[in-house]
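Thread: quick sanity check before group meeting

JM: Hey all, I'm pulling together slides for Thursday and realized we never actually wrote out the predicted structure for the chain we discussed last week. Dropping the sequence here so it's in one place. If anyone has concerns about the input, flag it before I start.
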Amino acid sequence: MISGTRSTTTAGPETPAEPQVLAGRLRLAMIRLARQLRRHDPSELTITQLSALATVVLAGPLGIGQLADAESLPSPAATRLADKLEEAGFVARRANPADRRGVHVVATARGADLFARREQAGNAWLAERLGVLSERDRLALERAVSLLETLAAERPDCMPPLSEEHAETKEQTKMPI
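JM (edit): ok, ran it. Output follows.
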């Protein structure tokens, strides 16, 4: 074992790790994976800016309040974030056709292009790493990703649809999500 690392053994398939132990392992693994993704997927944007750009590209056009909700930010922070993305030419503000007082944040061609390039570069590196896993491990990871998406959703109305197996597991364990 490398100095400074913890054993990756688990309690076994019948005995799940205690939440505190699992939380520590998961957090460290996510930190390390995020660092690797940043190395293989560099950008002039911060993680927060890239996340907001992704939200606008994938779900836009959005009002500032909708962006704030999607990014779990206070409205003033979402406004500053939109300002920085607009100054960089990645988003633009357009009049809201349903409310003349409001504006929508929309991705510019430059913003959509940056997002597409970042997504392609990051996904290519990660797909290469996933490609060496066995089919069984990829299926396990697919289930884990579904659970992680649920954990990452800070509000129930933002949660992704659950797989049948995930829904059955949730029902059997009666875990709140």
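AS: nice. Confidence is low (pLDDT under 50) at residues 1-11, 158-163, 165-177. DSSP finds seven helices and two strands in the chain.
JM: adding both to the slides.
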